[in-house]
Design a protein that fits this description.
The complex is a heterodimer. Chain A is of the alpha+beta class. Chain A has helices at residues 2-15, 46-53, 66-81, 109-123, 150-157, 161-165, 205-210, and strands at residues 21-28, 34-41, 57-58, 61-62, 86-94, 99-106, 137-139, 143-146, 171-178, 182-185, 191-192, 198-203, 217-221. The model of chain A is unreliable at 1-17 (pLDDT under 50). In chain B, a hairpin with a 3-residue loop joins strand 15 and strand 16. Classes of the chains: A alpha+beta, B alpha+beta.
C-alpha cells in the first residue's frame, strides 16, 4: 500500500501545473518611511503542493513537513522583528490555501534593504553574497528608482528550465504607492491608478526569470504645491 | 587409439571439473542474480553497466575513466559463463560482489585498473586489492567482493576496548558534545534540503568534509574513540575476509553446495535468474537478533517458521514479450496460513467498477477469516509456550481477544479482498484564492472562487458482507462532522483528497468504494454497466490466485512523473516510455509449500537492446531485495 500511495501522490505531482501569484506592494511616504507587503498565493496549485508535501522526497531532495515550514516562517518573522528601523512585522500563513502574507513598516528604504540583506546573509550561513552589494530601491524625495534585487536574479537562474516553464501560468504584480500624485514613469508597461497615486507593473514569473529588468522603473512625483 | 581414448577421458575429466562462475558464489549470499546469457550484454557499454545499483560495490573503481568508450565485450569477461551478482548478510558482516568467468585477464585489469596484486594464502588462487574491494581468481573464474563488518559488532568491540583502557563515556568525545551539534545545526541550515550523501571509495562508512573532521587528541600516541573504531573495523574486516576466503577456497562451502534450490535453478536456460533466501535476510534483521538474545526458544520457533522461505525466478526475453516467473517457497506451517488466506473466490462484483478504458487496475483476493484462524492455530502456541512472561502474556491477550471479539462481524465487514483502478487524468473541482484589484487605488481584496485542477482519477474498494457497519459509521460522521454529506446513493467528504478535492464514498453491492471520480459517484454508483471491464478480460485473474494486475503501459507509464525518481530509475522507466504494451501480473493459488507469480510484458515492435531489459529487471529485483 505504501508504494500505491507514493504512486498516487506521484501522479498528482506530475499531472497538475504550477501556478503562483505574487504581489510586492511598496507604500512610500515623502519622508522616506513607508510600508512593504509581499504576498504569495499558491492556492491554484494546492493539490500539487499537498501531494508534494505528502512525499518524503522529490527530485532526490527531502521535502520539508508543514511543521518545519511553520518553524522556518516563525524564525524569519522573529529575525525581521529584531532589525533596526523595521516595525509592525506581520507574517501570516494559510496552510489550507497556501497563501503567505508578509508586511512591515520601515523608517527608511535603506533600513528596509539592510534588513533584507541581513536576513539573506543569515540564511546563507553568514557567507557573503556579492549580489547584495547594491540597493535596488533609491528614493530622492521626488524620484524613485526600482529594480529587481540582483540576488533575486541569481536565484532565478538557479531554477531548472523545466521548473521555470511552470511559472508561465503565474503572475507577478509590483505596486508602488505614494502620498502624492505621480507625474510620469519610464517603464511603458506600467499602469497608473485612477487616483494617480499608485503604479502597477504586471508580468508572469517566467518572463521575470528570463528578463529581470521587466520590473525596472523610475517614477517621478509631482512637486507638492 | 589407446592414446586417443586416454586423451579423450582426460579432456572429459578436465571439462567436468572445470570451475564455473557460479561455483564461487559464497554460502553467505542471501540474494543471487544471475545473467545466464551474457552474450545479450555484449552491446551494453561499461559506463551504462556501472550505473546500475547492483554494480554499486565496484562503481568507485569503474567510474575513474577506465571504462570510457568500452563495452562489456572489451572487459575480458568470458561470455560462455554466467555473471552472478550476490549480496548477503552473515552473522557478523555483510558481503556483496559478483562472480564471473574470465576470458582475458589483461583486458579485465585494464578495466579494474586500480587493483594491485596481493599475497595469496591459497594455492592456485590469485588475489588483487583496491581499498576494501578484493578480486580472487581461481582458474578462469573470478570473484569480486567487499566485506563490511556489522556496525553492532564493531561498536561492541570498540566499546569494550575503549572502557577497558579506562576512558570515560564515549559520547564525551568531540563528535557528541553540544558544541559540535550546534555547529552542525547552523552549518546545514535548519530545514535545507539534504543532498544525497556520497561515500568515499576508500572507506566503508561516509566521512565528513575536511572541516568537520575531529580534532587530534591531546596525546598523539593515544587514539580517539573514532580512530580506535576505525582500527577495530579494519582488524575485523581482515579477519572476516580470511574466514570468507577459507570457506570458499579451503572448505568449499559455496552456495551450490549448501543450497540445493540454488543449484537446481542453475540448470535454467532462461536469460536470467534470481534466487533470494528470505530466511537469511530475516535472521540478519536487528529485531530478530534482539529476539535471539532475549527470547532464545521463541527465536528458534520463529526461525523454524521462516526456514526454507525462498524466492526464485527466471527472466525470459522473447521476440515480443518479456516474462518473469517467480516461485516463492516456504515451510508448511507458514504455507498453511498462505494457503488458507488465498483460498478465496474471485469477487466478480468489483468488475463493474473498473471501467473498460482504465489505464491500470489490480485485484487482490484473500480470505482474512481463514488466514486469521490458521495463523491463530500456528502462531499462538509460539507465544503461549514461550519462556518469556511478556510473550506468554501477549499470547493470553490474543486468546482473550479471540474469545471476546465478534469475528463474524469483523471479517464480514472487511473480508480482505480489494481492488483499485487508475482511470487517467481528469479536471476536478476545487477552490482557489484570487486578489481582486480596485482600479482607483490598486488596493485589493481576497476572494475565494471555484477552480478546476487536473488530478489522476482513482477508484479503490474492498469487499464487505456487512454494509450496515460502515453505514453506521458514515451516518455518524455525516451527523457530526460538517465535511461529511449523505447524498443518498453515495457520500461526499469535502476537501479529503489532497486537502483540495472531494472524496466520494459508495457503500453498496457488496463493496465499500472510495474515489475522487465525481462521475462514478453521481452517474454510476451501481457500476459502469456495459462500459465496465468484461469477465473475459480478467479471465486469468479470476482463475488464478490472490493477485492480479494489468497496466496499459503506453498510457500509464507516460504519466509517471519523472520528478520523484532518480536518474537511474528514470532510465529504467524510460525503457518502457513511448512503447505500447501491456504489463500483467498474476499469481497461482497458494499451496502449503509455495506460490507462483508471473509478470509478463507484451509489447509491439522491436526493441533495440535486449541486454538493457535484463539488466533493468535484475536491477529492480536487486533494489527490492536489498
Amino acid at each position: 500500500m505504501k508504494y500505491l500511495r507514493v504512486l498516487i501522490l506521484a501522479l498528482i505531482t506530475l499531472s497538475v501545473t504550477g501556478c503562483i501569484e505574487i504581489i510586492d506592494d511598496l507604500t512610500l511616504n515623502m519622508d522616506g518611511s513607508g510600508s512593504f507587503k509581499y504576498n504569495i498565493n499558491l492556492s491554484s496549485s494546492k493539490v500539487k503542493i499537498n501531494s508534494i508535501l505528502a512525499l518524503d522526497s522529490l527530485d532526490g531532495k527531502r521535502v520539508p513537513s508543514i511543521g518545519e515550514i511553520k518553524q522556518k516562517v516563525s524564525r524569519l518573522n522573529e529575525k525581521l522583528k529584531s532589525e533596526s528601523g523595521i516595525s509592525n512585522v506581520s507574517l501570516t500563513a494559510d496552510y489550507t490555501n497556501y497563501v503567505f502574507k508578509f508586511s512591515c513598516d520601515f523608517a527608511s528604504l535603506a533600513e528596509l534593504q539592510s534588513a533584507i540583506k541581513t536576513i539573506a546573509l543569515s540564511e546563507n550561513g553568514g557567507n557573503s553574497i556579492p549580489e547584495l552589494d547594491h540597493n535596488w530601491l533609491i528614493f530622492s524625495g521626488s524620484q524613485l528608482n526600482r529594480s529587481v534585487p540582483e540576488i533575486a536574479i541569481k536565484k532565478t537562474k538557479e531554477i531548472k528550465n523545466s521548473d521555470r516553464l511552470m511559472l508561465k501560468e503565474g503572475t507577478y504584480t509590483s505596486i508602488t504607492r505614494f502620498e502624492t500624485e505621480i507625474e510620469k514613469f519610464d517603464n511603458d508597461k506600467a499602469k497608473l491608478s485612477a487616483n494617480k497615486k499608485a503604479i502597477m507593473l504586471r508580468t508572469d514569473p517566467y518572463s521575470l526569470t528570463q528578463n529581470p529588468s521587466l520590473l525596472d522603473n523610475t517614477i517621478y512625483l509631482k512637486k507638492s504645491e | 587409439m589407446k592414446i586417443f581414448l586416454t586423451a579423450l577421458s582426460l579432456i572429459s575429466v578436465i571439462g567436468l571439473n572445470a570451475q564455473q562462475s557460479e561455483d564461487l558464489v559464497p554460502q553467505e549470499a542471501a540474494s543471487v542474480f544471475s545473467i545466464n546469457n551474457i552474450n545479450l550484454l555484449q552491446k551494453v557499454s561499461l559506463d551504462q553497466l556501472v550505473q546500475y545499483e547492483f554494480m554499486e560495490e565496484v562503481q568507485d573503481e569503474l567510474f575513474d575513466g577506465s571504462t570510457s568508450g568500452k563495452t562489456i565485450k572489451d572487459s575480458g569477461i568470458d561470455f560462455d559463463q554466467k555473471l552472478n551478482i550476490f549480496i548477503g548478510p552473515a552473522d557478523d558482516y555483510f558481503v556483496s560482489g559478483l562472480t564471473f568467468g574470465i576470458a582475458n585477464k589483461d583486458q579485465l585489469f585494464e578495466v579494474f585498473d586500480d587493483f594491485e596484486p596481493i599475497e595469496s594464502k591459497y594455492a592456485g588462487v590469485e588475489f588483487y586489492s583496491s581499498y576494501f574491494n578484493r578480486i580472487a581468481i581461481k582458474g578462469n573464474v573470478g570473484i569480486l567482493y567487499r566485506i563490511i563488518p556489522s556496525g553492532n559488532v564493531v561498536d561492541d568491540l570498540t566499546d569494550s576496548i575503549w572502557y577497558a583502557q579506562g576512558n570515560g563515556y564515549r559520547w564525551d568525545d568531540y563528535y557528541y558534545d553540544d558544541h559540535y551539534y550546534e555547529e552542525e545545526y547552523e552549518l546545514e541550515g535548519e530545514f535545507e534540503f539534504i543532498e544525497e550523501m556520497e561515500t568515499e571509495e576508500n572507506t566503508t562508512t561516509p566521512i565528513d568534509e575536511e572541516d568537520n573532521l575531529p580534532e587530534a587528541g591531546e596525546d598523539p600516541t593515544k587514539k580517539t574513540y573514532y580512530e580506535l573504531r576505525d582500527s577495530v573495523e579494519m582488524a575485523l574486516q581482515n579477519g572476516f575476509m580470511d574466514a570468507f576466503c577459507d570457506n570458499i577456497f579451503v572448505k568449499g562451502n559455496v552456495l551450490t553446495k549448501t543450497s540445493p534450490k540454488f543449484k537446481k535453478q542453475l540448470n535454467s536456460e532462461s536469460e536470467g535468474t534470481f534466487f533470494i533466501d528470505n530466511s537469511k535476510n530475516l535472521k540478519s534483521n536487528n529485531d530478530f537478533d534482539f529476539m535471539k538474545r532475549r527470547y532464545p526458544s521463541f527465536y528458534y520457533r520463529m526461525d523454524e517458521l521462516y526456514t526454507g522461505n525462498t524466492m526464485s525466478g527466471e527472466i525470459h526475453i522473447n521476440e515480443n514479450s518479456i516474462e518473469m516467473e517467480l516461485d516463492t517457497e516456504y515451510g508448511e506451517k507458514l504455507g498453511s496460513v498462505y494457503k488458507e488466506m488465498t483460498d478465496s473466490k474471485f469477487d466478480k462484483s468489483v468488475l463493474k467498477y473498473i471501467p473498460e478504458d482504465n489505464q491500470s487496475f489490480f485485484t487482490y483476493n484473500v480470505d482474512l477469516r481463514k488466514a486469521y484462524e490458521e495463523a491463530f492455530r500456528v502462531i499462538l502456541p509460539i507465544f503461549s509456550e514461550s519462556e518469556s512472561r511478556d510473550l506468554s502474556t501477549f499470547g493470553l491477550t490474543l486468546e482473550l481477544l479471540d474469545e471476546f471479539i465478534n469475528k463474524d462481524a469483523l471479517f464480514d465487514s472487511y473480508k480482505g479482498s480489494m481492488f483499485g483502478s487508475f482511470n487517467g487524468i481528469q479536471r476536478v473541482k476545487t477552490t482557489k484564492i484570487i486578489w481582486d484589484y480596485d482600479d482607483e487605488t490598486f488596493d485589493y481584496i481576497e476572494k475565494e472562487v471555484e477552480a478546476e485542477e487536473d488530478m489522476p482519477v482513482f477508484v479503490f474498494g474492498f469487499s464487505t458482507d456487512r454494509h450496515d457497519i460502515p453505514e453506521k459509521i458514515m451516518k455518524h460522521l455525516c451527523k457530526n462532522m460538517r465535511q461529511f454529506h449523505n447524498m443518498g446513493e453515495y457520500y461526499i467528504v469535502d476537501n479529503a483528497v489532497m486537502n483540495a478535492a472531494p472524496l466520494y464514498i459508495i457503500n453498496k453491492n457488496g463493496l465499500f468504494i472510495y474515489t475522487n471520480d465525481e462521475v462514478l459517484a453521481k452517474l454510476y454508483s451501481d457500476g459502469y454497466g456495459k462500459n465496465a471491464i468484461s469477465k473475459k478480460q480478467v479471465k486469468k485473474g479470476m482463475k488464478g490466485g490472490a493477485v492480479y494486475a494489468r497496466a496499459n503501459l503506453s498510457k500509464a507509464i507516460a504519466e509517471l512523473p519523472k520528478e520523484i525518481f532518480n536518474s537511474r530509475e528514470n532510465e529504467m522507466i524510460d525503457v518502457f516510455r513511448g512503447k505500447s504494451g501491456t504489463l500483467e501480473l498474476s499469481s497461482s493459488k497458494s499451496t502449503k509449500t509455495g506460490t507462483s507469480f508471473n509478470l509478463s510484458y507484451q509489447f509491439e515492435g522491436e526493441y533495440d537492446n535486449s541486454g538493457t531489459y535484463i539488466l533493468d529487471l535484475i536491477n529492480s529485483m536487486y533494489v527490492i531485495s536489498k
